Amino acid sequence: MNEILEKKQLNPTVKLMVINSPLMAKKAKPGQFVIVRVDEKGERIPLTIADYDGEKGTVTIIFQEVGMSTKKLGTLDVGDKLHDFVGPLGKPVEFSKDTKRVLAIGGGVGVAPLYPKVKMLNKNGVSIDSIIGGRSAEYVILEDEMRAVSDNLYITTDDGSKGRKGFVTDVLKELIEKGNKYDEVIAIGPLIMMKMVCRITKEYNIPTMVSMNPIMIDGTGMCGGCRVTVDGETKFACVDGPAFDGFKVDFDEAMRRQNMYKDMEKKALEKYEHECKLGGILNG
Amino acid sequence: MANMSLKKVQMPEQDPNVRNKNFKEVALGYEENMAVEEAERCIQCKNQPCVSGCPVHVQIPDFIKQIANRNFEGAYQKIKETNNLPAICGRVCPQESQCESVCTRGKKGEPVAIGRLERFAADWHMRNKEDKVEALKKNGRKVAVIGSGPAGLSCAGDLAKMGYDTTIFEAFHTPGGVLMYGIPEFRLPKEIVQKEIDSLKKLGVKIETNMVIGKILTIDDLFEMGYEAVFIGTGAGLPKFMGIPGENLNGVYSANEFLTRINLMKAYDFPNHPTPVKVGKKVAVVGGGNVAMDAARSAKRMGADEVYIVYRRSEEEMPARLEEIHHAKEEGIIFKLLTNPVRVIGDESGNVKGIECVNMVLGEPDQSGRRRPIEEKGSEHVIEVDTVIIAIGQSPNPLITSTTEGLEKQKWGGIIVNEDTLETSRKGVFAGGDAVTGAATVILAMGAGKKAAASIHKFLSEK
């Protein structure tokens, strides 16, 4: 259980791991997530379930190395075990039967949670256009996977090193202005990206689903650390979400809450990197 | 000859001004001679009211007699016959409203310090004896226990003693429930909880952590896997918020989140433990129960200069234990009574900078028998704080009830059971503790766990 069966570097900061977890693989559905603890003292961090295979008994996670815990996780190798691996958590996403055509938008590592939803829609005969973006060419992930489940795939990079130069929202605008009709938009990525997407889709009144990524501890609804305001009401993203109606989410509040521990996160990372260097000197 | 002193033998404690800066245990426990001296205050009365005052009916005069005779291990074994977790109960039970409230010696003077003596016997055993591994006769029948808090642990312990192949499923990475994530180290050292859990494992109880029942497995799955009965002891872990403006500002915590970060994730040892927690210089804890006291005293230990308990009724109505209120005051916690928050105020970057409160006056008693607090018009005032912790109660988590068909629950979320057998509306499914009653005490949950184990045994024997 919890053994890493496969590890892939998707780009300079993003890694994929296939984890042996038969029970979870059987229950997982698109939209759900896991909580991981790397080692005995570790913090609990939420990560998206990017893929799962009930027959093989595997669950795939994709994560960006942004701080101490994700960096530490990145140092584990095939054959290592995750100390704790909890899930599947959160509500699976649901789509109406009338959904025939969807525009899927993924920014950065947000393509990872986007992929299982698109894969499921594609399997159900829904027609999909996808826009995926990244800072530059090497930050665009899951291109082949997304292409395989999309009718049309558009790529954007901030610097133009791959696909077209600009933001995912630029392509979104063009597609709508071209007259493309979508029953629904799914947007997953940085909060600011999701906010901008919603600003555009609201103008055209296209229902838009977003997936929130607030700070979490338990992931089971017992603390409220992950609360978000949706339609003026407090919701717990770990049990009521993480997917919500993008028009109703208070993104500004979410952005503020996400930065609550920035200074402490930096301190934990510095300590970890310092110890890594020391370890290198002592061992090397 | 009994010791006729009207007062309990004092228990040594850390000095308030030292302990409010560390997370070490406040009460240090009796030494052998103190325990013997206190044990001699028990007059071994015939009617033994103390035993019926104990939710799990520990044979109190019997174990106390053993302590008086300096047979400390004998005392421990006597307690263990009925209580699976004595080191915990001796520390956190509200003895003043249970065993000690009916002690004959309490009619004139202070009652016998039953809790302290129980704790002494359990600690003495942990220090001096190895748990014997008893070869228990197995009956080959499987029972699942959901939740490893006091109800689940106690139920599983009794089932294992009866020969059942018992597995506990726990959602967190560490078993213990509120004993681990809720009650702080300075009241209940986690090492002690761990030892009590280890002694259950020696009885053959299996514990599967990281298993969120309702998600990874449902109760129906458990029956399919061959479990013949299920006990639900999932507690009341869903935090209530006040629903006032500003509650989602940075710096507002539920007590559950605050205490989980500190106790379970050991955020007081940041960055050695990487889970962060933010405690400002001035902290307001809203509520008057034990959870509020725990949160306030933890905040003080995290370095806050001023910590307020903000409570809408008066001290008399506070649900917290007297001892905890007393300890909190000694440690410098400031009580703002008859005060109710109406709004959390933030600065321009969204951090808490104060709470607006109103004064309350007490009116007629309400349904709970406590006098209803009524807002005093025009009494709005602001308390400057940079952290707010909401500790106004918890309700049962709906994860299990929402994923189990045919499991009836109360409007407020509690699972409905037959009070005599603790059986739910689903055959073979039993429930007890806070999941049934709403937030109550450790010992009541343990009592329910024991009762359910007996019912499960009866149910399976007749099956």
TrEMBL record, chain B:
GO terms for molecular function: iron-sulfur cluster binding; oxidoreductase activity. Residues 32-66 form the 4Fe-4S ferredoxin-type domain. It holds the Pfam family Pyr_redox_2. It comes from the Bacteria. InterPro entries: 4Fe4S_Fe-S-bd, DPD_II, FAD/NAD-bd_sf, FAD/NAD-binding_dom, Helical_ferredxn, SudA-like. PANTHER family: GLUTAMATE SYNTHASE [NADPH] SMALL CHAIN (PTHR42783), GLUTAMATE SYNTHASE [NADPH] SMALL CHAIN-RELATED (PTHR42783:SF3). This is Glutamate synthase (NADPH), homotetrameric. It comes from Thermoanaerobacterium thermosaccharolyticum (strain ATCC 7956 / DSM 571 / NCIMB 9385 / NCA 3814 / NCTC 13789 / WDCM 00135 / 2032) (Clostridium thermosaccharolyticum).
